[in-house]
């Protein structure tokens, strides 16, 4: 067997090949372009890399063009955690010396000695990779939108409390089109107080509101014309200009999140697993796309449901040493999947009677706190999802929660 290690960098990469005995067979310093990729592939082919006998490759990243080139064909690619690679480096030298060619050699030796302990990158389809790109980008856009909205809210508290009071009754508050349109029309409380009901009605209609426009314009007029504390005129105008700049960022973030949501929905609904995922209570298109993006469609990625639960951070972990033993939640996990699972379990409480009964049993009988009970529910439903995807079956409430539904049926 030949093993390849690549120390990845922004512009150049170091490559090392070793044999079963750990002897260095070849090393190269390649550029991050088409010419460099060709040198790498020619080097692998020179040492016997083929479809029938591919050379495994270890690298410290799972993304990028270099990884895409390496994943062509049947060649297994292992994304080694940089922290794990640093621990392996200490096996070869205690002086803490470090070099890029040396790191490439360490990565190759990781596969030579412990390839069985590491997982290659999953063999997901191109469609699910596209879903992963869009779902993660949409999730990042939503987080960015909320961060900018929080900045805007903090700024409005300094000089424009009337706006916060006016928008407090609306879901999503400052992220709504009506709020953005009104702030653009009246960036200061003095201008807002001079708005007529006709102007407020027109602004609400421009934002897309169709029902209750007159009543809402009346309410906004009363809020804006009420008695509020004011900054000095010059300071208020300056804060208004600052608010318009932040508002522009918020409008761009909202547009990006909406566009990515549409693109995610379009790609996700084309996948054959979408119908099964959407059959689960609490999983909509966006949340289902995030779940699919993180677990992929490679059915050999997880040997059983326990592996998937550990990957998501839903199952507990035991730490034991001598006479001491503790069972705690996992800190090392897929954070995106874990976040999606929190929202999934929370939504399932109102969408599934069995999920709600399971949650109440964990709270009342097991004595779990809210977060622990919700994590336990996510753990159970993740196992059900693994089973349904493996056997190509949709979610069935009476099969998923038979013991939880039985007492409710008997009481009825």
For the structure shown, list the relevant keywords:
7 strands, 19 helices, Nucleotidyltransferase, domain 5, alpha/beta, 5-stranded mixed β-sheet, 412 residues, two-stranded antiparallel sheet, 3 domains
What would you report as the Rg, rounded to the nearest angstrom? 28 Å
Overall spatial form: globular
What is the ordering of alpha helices and beta strands? EEEHEHEHHHHHHHHHHHHEEHHHHH
What are the segments in which pLDDT stays under 50 over at least 5 consecutive residues?
A: none
Fraction of helical residues: 55-70%
Terminal Cα separation, in Å? 66 Å
Tally of separate domains: 3
Beta fraction: 5-15%
How many β-strands, per DSSP?
Answer: 7
Total DSSP helices: 19
Major β-sheet annotation: 5 strands, mixed
- Report the structural category: alpha/beta
Mean pLDDT, nearest integer? 91
Q: Order of strands across the biggest sheet?
A: 3-2-1-4-5
* Assembly of the depicted chains: single chain
């Amino acid at each position: 067997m030949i093993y390849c290690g690549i120390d990845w960098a922004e512009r150049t990469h170091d490559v090392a090949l070793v044999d079963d005995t750990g002897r260095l067979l070849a090393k190269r310093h390649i550029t991050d372009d088409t010419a460099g990729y060709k040198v790498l592939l020619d080097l692998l082919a020179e040492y016997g890399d083929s479809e029938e006998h591919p050379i495994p490759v270890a690298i410290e990243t799972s993304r990028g063009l270099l990884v895409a080139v390496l994943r062509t064909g049947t060649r297994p690619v292992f994304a080694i955690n940089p922290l794990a690679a640093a621990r392996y480096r200490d096996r070869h030298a205690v002086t803490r010396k470090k070099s890029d060619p040396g790191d490439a050699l360490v990565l190759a030796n990781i596969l030579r000695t412990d390839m069985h302990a590491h997982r290659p990158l999953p063999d997901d389809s191109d469609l699910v990779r596209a879903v992963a790109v869009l779902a993660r980008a949409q999730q990042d856009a939503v987080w960015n939108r909320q961060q900018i909205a929080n900045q805007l809210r903090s700024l409005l508290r300094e000089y424009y409390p009337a706006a916060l009071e006016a928008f407090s009754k609306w879901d999503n508050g400052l992220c709504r089109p009506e709020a953005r349109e009104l702030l653009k029309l009246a960036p200061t409380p003095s201008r807002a107080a001079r708005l007529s009901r006709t102007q407020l009605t027109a602004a609400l209609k421009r934002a897309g509101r169709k029902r209750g426009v007159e009543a809402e314009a009346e309410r906004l007029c009363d809020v804006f014309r009420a008695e509020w504390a004011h900054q000095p005129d010059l300071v208020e105008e300056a804060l208004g200009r600052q608010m318009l700049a932040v508002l522009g960022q918020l409008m761009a973030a909202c547009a990006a999140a909406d566009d990515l949501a549409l693109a995610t929905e379009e790609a996700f609904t084309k996948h054959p697993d979408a119908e099964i995922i959407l059959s689960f209570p609490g999983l909509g298109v966006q949340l289902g796309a995030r779940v699919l993006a993180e677990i992929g469609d490679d059915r050999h990625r997880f040997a059983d449901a326990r592996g998937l639960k550990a990957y998501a951070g839903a199952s507990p972990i035991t730490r034991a040493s001598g006479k001491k033993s503790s069972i705690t939640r996992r800190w090392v996990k897929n954070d995106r999947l874990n976040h999606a699972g929190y929202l999934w379990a929370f939504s399932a409480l109102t969408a599934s009677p069995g999920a709600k009964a399971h949650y109440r049993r964990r709270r009342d009988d097991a004595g779990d706190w809210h977060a622990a009970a919700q994590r336990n529910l996510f753990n159970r439903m993740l196992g059900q999802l693994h089973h349904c995807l493996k056997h190509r079956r949709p979610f069935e409430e009476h099969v998923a929660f038979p013991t939880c539904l039985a007492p409710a049926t008997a009481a009825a």
